[in-house]
Amino acid sequence: MHLYLLMLVVISDSFVSREIGAPLISIMGFLVLLAYGVDRSLLKLITPIIMVLFIGVISLIVNYFIYNANYQIRDILRDFLYSTTPVACLLIGYFAAKNDGRWTKISKTAIMLGVVMAFYHLSAFVANPGLILEEPMKVRDTAGNIADIVLISFLIIIFQRRFDLNSKKYYYIALILFTSIYLSYSRTSMIVLLLFYFSMSGIIGRINFKFVFSILLLFLSYYWISEYYVDSNDYTITSRIFRIFSEMAISDYDSMSEININWRGFETYKTISQYLNGDAIQLIVGQGFGTLVDLGLNIDLGGGVGTGTESSNYRYIPITHNGYAYIILKFGLAGIFGYIYFFYILIKKIYVGIGTEIGPALETRRFLLGLILAVASIMSVGMGMAQMTNLCYLYFIGYFYRRVY
Fold first, then answer.
1. Residue 199: left if φ>0, alpha if ψ -120 to 50, beta else—which one?
2. What is the predicted pLDDT for the residue at 286?
3. Helix (H, G, I), strand (E, B) or coil at 75
């Protein structure tokens, strides 16, 4: 059953719409909970996210009765279900780890699913070989992005020592997965790979002056190159890498060309501005389930964006690229605290034994740390766990959390 649940998580994360995937995953999580119950360690893990759910309900009631908020039922249900999916995925992954002997089957199933999704992504290049010579933006528009399971299965092969890369089978599988990752031209995937390198190599666990100085020097070099040598109209992968921070710079851009280039920063600016326009109560508990971000203008965003319509030209959006801005608007400072406390619980659990364990036990803690850093980082650029994304990451966080507890 647990292998089928993993497949369901991957399908919900990669194929079906959020409107279908969110209730499907939430229902399955609830059924798993009924079947296995709650133990102390699981309750500790999911309490912060459940707390945010309650804050969303309280905020909705407050905004309805005090501020006469007139949110649409569809928007309220969507936000509520998006907020339940992290709990459901953590539950499914946690109970999959009840038996340590399942890891071999689960990891091999994850790798199989990763290969399937990699072939699905690479099929666009098979159908159109010339695509590989096109600019990254056109490649992304045609071939799409990779599923999270592609990157996770690659990381499992590379960093889980039970898989011997001297075996030709896993060498070829890793090569297929990496090809898909590379041709996705995903900056987020590059960041995740870097974070996992830092985590699995133990660099993060032994931070010292030399490490901090090296990171500072690297950041200053990055800023210098991006500020003086990168053309904002250049869409090569190199230029896009060096524009990561400039695109997220929070500002009320004037021209449409600036808004299009720095969309994430503009979107975040509008979200935070709307949040700050609230009074003291709204600053604490947010504006509740169902609130939409007012962009202040009509803009073509390519259709969908969680609205369930074919229209691509609209002024109000239900989700944002910056997951933390989304959380603070809907759930206020209390919601941000809930998510920070969630990450704190996980990191504290990792570091309890990271200095004393060796071998597979240490490897497991470091892998969990990499997953946590990935999810926390993605939330600042790619919506994240609060908005029905990163389901596969959450599944494996639940799984590895139980294995290190």
1. alpha
2. 94
3. helix
| Helices and strands: H and E segment counts in the chain | 18, 2
Q: Count other C-beta atoms under 10 Å from residue 232's C-beta.
A: 13
Query: Facing residues of 317 across strands?
Result: 293
Distance CA 27, CA 24 (A): 5
DSSP lists the bridge partners of residue 314 as 299
Backbone angles phi, psi at 166, to 5 degrees: -70, -20
Across 26-39, average pLDDT: 91
Stated as kind and residue range, the H or E segment containing 256 is helix 256-261
Dmax (CA) of the chain: 65
Q: Are 399 and 100 in contact (CB under 8 A)?
A: no
Give the tens place of pLDDT for each residue, 269-318: 889 999 999 999 999 999 999 999 988 888 776 555 554 444 556 788 88
Q: Hey, how many other C-beta atoms are within 10 angstroms of the C-beta on 11?
A: 18
Selection from 133, 163, 250, 197 nearest residue 374 by Cα: 197
Helix (H) or strand (E) holding 243: none
**DSSP-derived secondary structure letter, 302:** -
* Residue found under tokens 């709307």: 274
Q: Which amino acid is at 35?
A: A
Contact 375, 148 (CB under 8 A): no
Looking at residue 170, its amino acid is Y
Place of tokens 């407050």: 62
Q: What is the identity of the amino acid at 290?
A: G
Rounded CA separation 184/147 (Å): 10
Amino acid at 21: G
Q: Give yes or no for a contact between 16 and 24, defined as CB atoms under 8 angstroms apart.
A: yes
Q: Residue 71 region, left (φ>0) first, then alpha (ψ -120 to 50), else beta?
A: beta
Q: Which amino acid is it at 4?
A: Y
Residue 93 amino acid letter: G
Amino acid (one-letter) located at 188: T
* C-alpha closest to that of 4 among 106, 118, 155: 106
Q: Is 332 left (phi over 0), alpha (psi -120 to 50) or beta?
A: left
| Nearest-angstrom CA–CA distance, 394 and 346 | 12
User: CA-CA-CA-CA torsion for 207, 44, 385, 245, nearest 10 degrees?
Assistant: -30
pLDDT value of residue 242: 45
| Cα–Cα distance, 149 to 152 (Å, whole number) | 5
Identity of residue 201: S
Give me the chain's average pLDDT, please: 82
